[in-house]
Hints:
The strands form five sheets. The chain has a four-stranded antiparallel sheet with strand order 1-9-10-11, with no helix packed on it. Strands 2-3-4-5 form a four-stranded antiparallel sheet, with no helix packed on it. A three-stranded antiparallel sheet has the order 6-7-8, with no helix packed on it. It has helices at 19-27, 85-91, 96-102, 151-157, 162-168, 224-231, 235-241, 292-298, and strands spanning 6-8, 53-55, 66-68, 74-78, 116-118, 132-134, 140-144, 188-190, 205-207, 213-217, 256-258, 272-275, 281-285, 321-323, 328-329, 334-336. The protein has three domains: 1-34 and 197-348, no CATH class; 53-118, Roll (Membrane-bound Lytic Murein Transglycosylase D, Chain A), CATH 3.10.350.10; 132-190, Membrane-bound Lytic Murein Transglycosylase D, Chain A (Roll), CATH 3.10.350. The protein is elongated, with a radius of gyration of 24 Å. 41% of the residues are buried. Helix 2 (85-91) packs across helix 3 (96-102). The chain is of the alpha+beta class.
Amino acid sequence: MVGTGTxxxxxxxxxxxxxTGVIVLLLAGLAGCTYADHAAEPAAAVQSTSVPxxxxxxxxxLSGETVRDSFGNVDFYTTAAGDTLAAVAKAYKLxxxxxxxxxxxxxxxxxxxxxxxRLMPAxxxxxxxxxxxxxxxxxxxxYTVEPDDSLAGITYRFNLTEEQLAEANKVPFAYEKGNVFxxxxxxxxxxxxxxxxxxxxxxxxxxxxxxxxxxxxxxxGDSFDSLGxxxxxxxxxxxxxxxxxxxxxxxxxxxxVRLIPGELKIEGAQGTFTADANGIPLTYTTAPGDIExxxxxxxxxxxxxxxxxxxxxxxxxxxxxxxLPSGELLPGQTISLALDxxxxxxxx
Length: 348
C-alpha cells in the first residue's frame, strides 16, 4: 500500500488538542503524570533557547542595557544619558503613564542615566493576583493561578503572548477551547522556557495527511524539553507513548519518537486501527464507549469529520453516534483517519 506519511525536516502544524480534559482521560490508570509536567534535562552543550539575559541591544534610539526573558521579550531597560520616560515608553509601545506606574513614577519625571525601568507590572494586577517566583534578574519564572485570574491578565502581567505561555508549558494552546481550560485555580504554570541545544529540532518528521507529526527522528542535542517545546508534548506524554525512553536518560540521536498515542489505547478510544508502511494510521474501527474527540486525539487527527464526509445529505460526517451530546460513537463502524483517503458513505 502506498503510504500517506510524508517525511520532512520542515516544521509541521501541531494539532490544537483539548489537552487538559483529554490528558486526564489519557493518563487515568496509566501513569501518575500531570499536564504541567516539567522533567529536569541534562545540561545542553550549545544553547539556543535563551535564558533571561542582560543585553545592550535596546530599541532603535535607545542605547541602554536590557534584560530579556527566554522568549526575547524585554522586561527591564536601564536608561542611558538623554533617555526620557516618554522615549522609553514609545520604543516599547507602551504609554508613558503605564511605564511610570510600573516604576512608581509620575509621567514626565526626569530619569537619570542608570535607572532600571520595569516594562511590566511590578506585582499582582487584575486577572493575575497570584504569587509568582522570579530569577535573580527579576524575570518571572513560575506562577500559581488564583480563582479570578484570566488568560489576558496573566499574559499582561508577565509580558507574554498567549502562544509563548502555551509553549513554556508544552501545550498546544492556553485559551479556553471546547470547555477545556488551561487557566485553572491552583495550577502552577511555567512562564519561561528552559535552555535547549541549538542543534535540536532539525530531525526528520513523518506527518499524517492532516499535517500532524506522528514520528520524529532525533538528532544530537534533542531533549525532552526541545521536543516538548517544538511538538507541544509534555515529558509525561512522550514517555507514555514511548515506553523504552527514560526521563533521566539523554535521548540518543536517531531515536524514532512517537508523538501521538497511536497503539496506546486510551479511555474513549479503545478500538483497533490499520496503518500504512510508515506507521501512519489509516482507518479505525470503533469500540463500545468510544468518544469522537478521544479518537481524534489518539491518532493526531484534527479534522476527523472531513475524512468522513457523507456521500449524500448535509451532515458533517456519515458515521453515527450512540449519544450525540457527549460525542459517543456507535461501535463497529470503520472510519477514515486519513484526509487523503476518505471514507464517504450516505448519512445515517
